[in-house]
């Protein structure tokens, strides 16, 4: 064979191989069946069968589909404990407890929460509670409550009307004189007289004396202690006299008196304990707070409520003193 012939054969083979390779590259592979990928849960997705909006800390409903009852937060400080004691008493079913708790709130002046509790008691269904509320507002010097006290002066129970009038006098509101005018003359200047209609009371010296003792016309030895308690004391019992002395000592400037009153808080007579607590409240010395706090658990309700009110008053004074001190130190 000639060299030219061999070269042509070699070129033909090379061309044929190139064409075959190009055809194989242009042919698509056989279609493979499409198998769906298994869905994997997202790391943030909720557990199976659980609604996506429920958080891990959200309380679960009970079998009836109702949310679990909320738990009342336990008081953590003496101030919170004092409020809880007084609020429970003010909203309780026992009339005497409501009246006493409302009355001692008069020891907590310039406090909107205390004023709201007392004003609400002005419409209580029991006259003892309404009377206590009217008297307490005067002790608090709650001038914002004057319009409500004027309404209460028309209460059909004389003790309530007298308490309202006495409080208005304490706040220098002359409309209170209508009630005293009626007691003297049997009717008011305006012609109406709800107290005068209670003829049996006006003509009974003992009942009028009781009203005066309780509502401020006469001498009240200490807050929250009514005429009934005094009548129950034996004639040879000196506790009312000692209680009255404790009230007078509230204004004694001698610092030694503070210790004497703090000691009297532990007296055997609950009348003296209550009176001493009130006196400490009015003296406004927060140094006795630790002593007062212990009597928020006294077995006698009148003492317990007076202690709670005293804690609130002295705590407010202590907080105000601390704010002034911090301000000076800046």
Task: Provide an overview of this structure.
The chain is mainly α and 330 residues long. Among the domains are: 108-220, no CATH class; 233-330, Leucine-rich Repeat Variant (Alpha Horseshoe), CATH 1.25.10. The chain has 16 helices and no strands. It has helices spanning 3-26, 78-90, 95-104, 112-121, 127-139, 146-152, 158-170, 177-185, 199-202, 205-215, 227-231, 239-248, 255-264, 270-283, 289-294, 301-329. α2 (78-90) crosses α3 (95-104), α7 (158-170) packs across α10 (205-215) and α13 packs antiparallel against α14 (270-283). It is globular. It starts with a helix and ends with a helix.
Record keyword descriptors for this entry.
330 residues, mainly alpha, Leucine-rich Repeat Variant, 16 helices, 0% strand
Mean pLDDT: 76
Largest sheet: none
How does the helix and strand content classify structurally? mainly alpha
Dominant shape: globular
**What string, H for helix and E for strand, traces the elements in order?**
HHHHHHHHHHHHHHHH
**What is the CA-based Rg, rounded?**
42 Å
DSSP helical segment count: 16
DSSP strand content: under 5%
Total count of strands: 0
Helix content: 55-70%
State the end-to-end CA separation.
117 Å
Extract low-pLDDT stretches.
29-59, 213-224
Write the layout of secondary structure elements.
Blueprint lengths: L2 H24 L51 H13 L4 H10 L7 H10 L5 H13 L6 H7 L5 H13 L6 H9 L13 H4 L2 H11 L11 H5 L7 H10 L6 H10 L5 H14 L5 H6 L6 H29 L1
């Amino acid at each position: 064979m000639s060299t030219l012939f061999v070269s042509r054969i070699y070129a033909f083979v090379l061309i044929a191989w190139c064409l075959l390779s190009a055809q194989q590259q242009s042919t698509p592979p056989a279609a493979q069946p499409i198998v769906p990928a298994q869905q994997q849960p997202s790391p943030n997705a909720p557990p199976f069968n659980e609604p996506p909006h429920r958080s891990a800390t959200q309380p679960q409903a009970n079998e009836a589909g109702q949310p679990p009852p909320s738990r009342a937060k336990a008081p953590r400080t003496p101030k919170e404990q004092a409020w809880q004691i007084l609020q429970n008493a003010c909203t309780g079913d026992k009339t005497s407890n409501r009246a006493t708790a409302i009355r001692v709130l008069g020891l907590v002046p310039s406090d909107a929460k205390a004023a709201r509790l007392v004003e609400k008691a002005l419409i209580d269904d029991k006259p003892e509670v309404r009377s206590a509320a009217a008297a307490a507002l005067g002790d608090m010097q709650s001038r914002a409550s004057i319009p409500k006290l004027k309404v209460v002066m028309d209460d059909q129970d004389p003790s309530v009307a007298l308490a309202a009038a006495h409080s208005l006098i304490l706040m220098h509101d002359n409309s209170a004189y209508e009630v005293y005018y009626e007691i003297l003359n049997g009717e008011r200047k305006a012609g109406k007289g709800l107290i005068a209609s209670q003829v049996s009371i006006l003509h009974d010296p003992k009942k009028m004396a009781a009203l005066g003792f309780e509502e401020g016309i006469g001498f009240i030895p200490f807050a929250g202690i009514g005429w009934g308690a005094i009548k129950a004391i034996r004639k040879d019992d000196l506790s009312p006299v000692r209680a009255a002395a404790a009230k007078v000592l509230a204004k004694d400037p001698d610092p030694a008196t503070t210790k004497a009153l703090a000691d009297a808080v532990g007296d055997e007579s609950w009348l003296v304990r209550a009176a001493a607590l009130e006196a400490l409240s009015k003296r406004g010395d927060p140094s006795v707070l630790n002593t007062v706090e212990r009597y928020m658990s006294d077995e006698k309700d009148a003492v317990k409520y007076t202690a709670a009110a005293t804690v609130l008053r002295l705590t407010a004074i202590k907080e105000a003193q601390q704010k002034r001190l911090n301000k000076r130190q800046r």
